[in-house]
Amino acid sequence: MINRRRFLLSSLAASFGISLPVHVKSANLRQAFREGPGAPLIISTWKHGLPANRAAFDSLSAGGSVLDAVEAGVRISEGDPAVTSVGYGGWPDAGGEVTLDACIMDRDGNAGSVACLKHIKHPVSVARRVMEKTPHVMLVGEGALQFAEKEGFCRENLLTPQAKEVWEKWKRESAAGTVTGHDTIGMITMDSSAELAGACTTSGLGFKMQGRVGDSPIIGAGLFIDNEIGGAAATGHGELVMKTLGSFLIVELMRNGMQPEDACREALERILQKIHIQPNQQVGFIAVDKSGTAGGFSLRDGFEYALLREGENKLIKASFLL
Length: 322
Ligand code: SD4
Fold this sequence. Notes:
Blueprint: H1 2-15, H2 22-34, E1 41-45, H3 49-61, H4 66-79, E2 99-105, E3 111-118, H5 123-133, E4 138-140, H6 141-150, H7 161-173, E5 185-190, E6 196-202, E7 223-226, E8 230-236, H8 238-244, H9 246-255, H10 260-274, E9 283-289, E10 294-298, E11 304-309, E12 312-317, E13 319-320
Parallel strand pairs: 3-4, 10-13
Antiparallel strand pairs: 1-5, 1-11, 2-3, 2-6, 5-6, 7-8, 8-9, 9-10, 11-12
The structure holds N-hydroxy-L-asparagine.
């Protein structure tokens, strides 16, 4: 009880701008979870997060690790051609090529990432191999593809007839430089022992400049996990998230006692303070802390996230700033 009181005190102190020593806050977050129900919690961005959450939950239920679960979860969106912003069926770049960005992070602070990867349907699984089988964090382009093939991943055509049609229409009708789409999947999974893992995977902004890489595969921007504190993930215009290292910032704000939703809001305020944003730009964040509190927030109206906890998997409309 004393520890729960201290946890509440820490949150209260944060709301008055008073900072407690980091080791006290971390210990309180850990203790608060131990006093909680200890059920898995899975949060992910957008409506397609619902089936992804379910797959992550099924993986945990089958005895998978929290890392297995987060990978299994986002692979659902990667493999679904109806999800036109992730993996197979994703909208291509300006040259008509599907290039994928993804990252994954485990409870021990290990991370793997791929960017501008062509022809491979499940970039998150390649990112996991980068993490587990190389001394590096990130592989890009041709090198990432070579590594994937060496690891046994097969080349596939990722451009569906539907995506090709949309791209051809864009080429005929749209002004050069117009980009679109905000449906990256970012997921944070917490198992019943409060261990955390996260993943983020996308085909990036539709019709992006060739060679462009967004926030999603950048550790600290599209995703960050600190197993002592919590995790955060981003969706939307990656340039805004990269310039403010949004996910890392959110985890640091939670380290200082802020609630996940407030931390997401604060990271969006930071974007507004530091960057001149365009009228069409959107960013959404999700976050979970070690006590099992989850939340999200977005710059503008329209962002939703999927939250699975205590057997219920539901879509939540995020509050927004503008
Ligand atoms: C990017 N953040 O490449 C991604 C795009 C996206 O939901 O659609 N996010 O900038």
